[in-house]
Design goal:
The protein contains twelve helices and nine strands. It has 431 residues and is of the alpha+beta class. Strands 1-3-5-4-2 form a five-stranded antiparallel β-sheet, sandwiched between helices. Strands 6-7 form a two-stranded antiparallel ribbon. The chain has a two-stranded antiparallel ribbon with strand order 8-9. The longest helix has 90 residues.
């Protein structure tokens, strides 16, 4: 009985930060993998890039989603100030994935003594499944790599399910990232796993899809436990009946003293003969049940081994996640420090621009006005910043119009300048 299984899993990636970490793992960008001793870095040179990626995962993501970013920037121009979001913030905070990681592998024994040519033939079949059965284009594949530096060879294929969908609100087609366009739900995933198994077997690979019941539906672990329990009960019942019939036969043989023999026949009582037949029937039932039990026991053992392997893998990931949490905390601390510094720098720039508008020559004022507009377009300044910088200067009208001041705010809202912008001792400018 073949106990090698075709394995295809799908793991959603919800944020760009997660995507970065997965890229670090898949591209073996760490110097050491203390949290995962199964990785043999000296073997990593034999890993195969099925769909190469020269840059980091996040940069690759931005390259694939260039048109989506352009569309988002255009939309932001007409968005209310309090609803504006940068592209990376928008994709992280949406309910959609930013990417999907497809994992392909098989039971460890499947790869025993497999030649490199045969391994690549299996990898090609997996990628054919990605293109032909899942429906991804090569432009949607961020990176795909075959790892042979771990205990069991496997493929990580990271896809960006970027699609254009009709938006009922705007009555236009808009970009979105939607895994559901390719894997709708668990039932659809199960159907795809059937297709994956079928594709591999058609290519000549000797792999099992899973246990098949009489109704040809896949049996999950809970159902397997139910079947095992039922078979055990059946075996106990049939064994008990066999014991009872054997004991009954023994008693009848003891009481059956006059047994007649001739050359071809043995003459016994009718009820004794019936008891013999009953023993034979019950023994046959037990014997017929035995192979079924053996098959299920082997399947349970296989599932158990697979589960234990996955559990070990999960524990390794947990350790790595803990390490990443610590690093993430440190990065957050540094990021907070940088944000404070950036805020101070921006405040200084705002004050400086205001002084230039107040005291500079016409040429300096024109250059400064252009810079203010650029800072606004790139979301470094908001409307309030532009208004406070320019109010009371000769460039006030042009900059007010540029940020649509009258459309969004009442004229009286900024009658008084913020103190932060009006400290005339901050700079000494001679022009």
């Amino acid at each position: 009985m073949n106990l090698n299984y075709a394995i295809f899993r799908s793991q959603p990636i919800m944020t760009l930060s997660d995507l970065k970490q997965i890229g670090t793992h898949n591209k073996r960008e760490k110097q050491a993998y203390k949290s995962n001793p199964d990785i043999k870095l000296e073997m990593s040179k034999y890993n195969v890039e099925l769909v190469p990626l020269a840059e980091k995962y996040v940069k690759g993501f931005y390259n694939i989603t260039k048109e989506y970013q352009k569309e988002h920037l255009e939309k932001q121009k007409t968005e209310r100030e309090d609803r504006k979001k940068k592209f990376n913030v928008m994709v992280d905070s949406s309910r959609n994935v930013v990417a999907d990681e497809l994992l392909f592998t098989a039971s460890n024994k499947f790869f025993d003594n497999m030649s490199n040519k045969e391994l690549m033939r299996w990898a090609d079949a997996c990628m054919e499944f990605v293109y032909e059965d899942l429906g991804y284009t090569k432009e949607q594949i961020l990176h795909s790599t075959l790892h042979v530096d771990e205990k069991t060879p496997h493929i990580h294929c990271v896809v960006i399910p970027l699609v254009k969908k009709y938006d009922n609100r705007t009555k236009t087609e808009r970009y979105t990232i939607s895994k559901k366009q390719y894997i709708k739900d668990k039932n659809h995933l199960s159907q795809l796993q059937d297709k994956y198994h079928q594709r591999l077997t058609e290519k000549g690979f000797d792999l099992e899809r899973g246990i098949k019941g009489s109704d040809n539906e896949n049996i999950n672990i809970k159902e397997l436990k139910k079947i095992t329990k039922k078979l055990n009960l059946d075996l106990n019942n049939k064994t008990q009946k066999l014991d009872e019939s054997v004991n009954d036969l023994k008693e009848k043989i003891k009481s059956n003293k006059n047994v007649l023999f001739d050359k071809e026949y043995v003459k016994i009582k009718k009820d004794t003969f019936e008891s013999i037949n009953k023993v034979i029937d019950n023994a046959t039932n037990v014997m017929n049940l035995q192979p079924k039990l053996e098959k299920v026991y082997k399947e349970v053992d296989s599932y158990t081994r697979s589960y234990q392997s996955i559990k070990r893998e999960n524990n390794l990931y947990k350790n790595e996640i803990e390490n990443l949490k610590i690093k993430n905390y440190e990065l957050n601390e540094k990021n907070n420090e940088l944000n404070v510094l950036l805020k101070d720098v921006l405040m200084t720039i705002k004050r400086f621009f205001r002084k230039l508008l107040q005291l500079g020559s016409e040429m300096i004022k024109n250059i400064t006005t252009s810079e203010i507009k650029q800072y606004y377009d790139e979301n470094y300044f908001d409307k309030k910043d532009v208004i406070n910088i320019s109010v009371g200067t000769s460039e006030e009208t042009e900059l007010f119009d540029y940020v649509d001041y009258k459309r969004y705010y009442g004229i009286s809202k900024y009658n008084e300048l913020d103190d932060d912008y009006d400290n005339k001792d901050d700079f000494e400018i001679g022009m």
